[in-house]
Design a protein that fits this description.
The complex is a heterodimer.
Chain A: E1 2-3, E2 14-28, H1 31-43, E3 45-46, H2 48-71, E4 76-88, E5 91-103
Parallel strand pairs in A: 1-4
Antiparallel strand pairs in A: 2-5, 4-5
Chain B: H1 2-35, E1 54-65, H2 68-80, H3 85-108, E2 113-123, E3 134-145
Antiparallel strand pairs in B: 1-3, 2-3
Helix pairs in contact in B: 1-2, 1-3
The chains are: A alpha+beta, B alpha+beta.
Chain lengths: ~100, ~150
């Protein structure tokens, strides 16, 4: 599965366009991480727990998108975009979407 | 009275540790930026190369929090209006760090260039009392591997 955020792959022709595929993941942090983050809010600096958390949920969202693309028979996802929204205090939604295509 | 003491202690802790954290972070950012200068990250959609290559998605993210002292300063500033430099440096650090992590991932794959770089910023503590607090920056792009 080829994943990229450009729209065309030079040298390769798109033989079939299969539409939008998407994957999302909503996660919240556990209490331990929240307490550490509370401390970091006083001292400043990187919140490593949150960085990891968001990276994990982004990987999961991407996996779900890839699974969806495989289900429709694509071999590449082009023009991938990520977005993050905080839907509630302490929880974030990570959303990944792209165009599933068949490359020759 | 106790509240005031706690507040002052938090303020000094934030000032001391926050300043140290920021200057160390900037030092490390500048050093790593020099190291990774050979992999440019550009915004253009089509790479400037005619040779055959393979592409792959790379990303880097970081969550950074502002310290207590700077948040207090920002609160004061928002009464008067104007530039909030404490948040400006927070976002600057976060963006540069995210781009560096993306470049580090690309360097590990032996990439020459990253193009179509996109940056997204999200506030994690929106809705919570105290406003911005911590931000997440994600940088992603397509790495070109010859």
């Amino acid at each position: 599965m080829l994943l990229t955020n450009i729209e065309i792959i030079p040298g390769k022709r798109i033989t079939k366009h299969l539409g939008l595929v998407q994957g999302s993941s909503v996660r919240s942090k556990h209490v331990g991480r929240d307490i550490m983050a509370g401390l970091k809010n006083i001292f400043g600096g990187e919140l490593k727990g949150y960085t990891e958390l968001l990276q994990e949920s982004r990987d999961e969202a991407t996996e779900r998108m890839v699974a969806q693309a495989e289900a429709v028979g694509a071999n590449a996802v082009l023009n991938i975009r990520f977005s993050t929204s905080s839907i509630a205090v302490g929880a974030a939604e990570i959303f990944a979407y792209g165009t599933a295509v068949v490359l020759e | 009275m106790l509240d005031l003491i706690v507040f002052l202690v938090l303020l000094t802790l934030g000032y001391g540790f926050g300043r140290r954290a920021e200057s160390q972070h900037y030092k490390s950012i500048i050093a790593r930026e020099k190291q990774l200068q050979s992999i440019p990250a550009v915004g253009m959609k089509v790479p400037p190369l005619a040779r055959p290559y393979t592409v792959t998605l790379v990303c880097g993210n970081v969550v950074i929090s502002v310290d207590y002292f700077k948040r207090f300063l920002a609160g004061l500033r928002s009464l008067l209006g104007g530039r909030i430099t404490s948040y400006e440096s927070l976002l600057d650090r976060a963006r540069r760090e995210a781009i560096l992590r993306m470049k580090e991932q690309a360097a590990g794959m032996g990439a020459k260039l990253i193009f179509n770089v996109q940056l997204t910023t999200a506030s994690l503590t929106r809705g919570k009392r105290g406003g911005i607090g911590s931000v997440e920056v994600l940088a992603y792009g397509t790495a070109l591997i010859e």
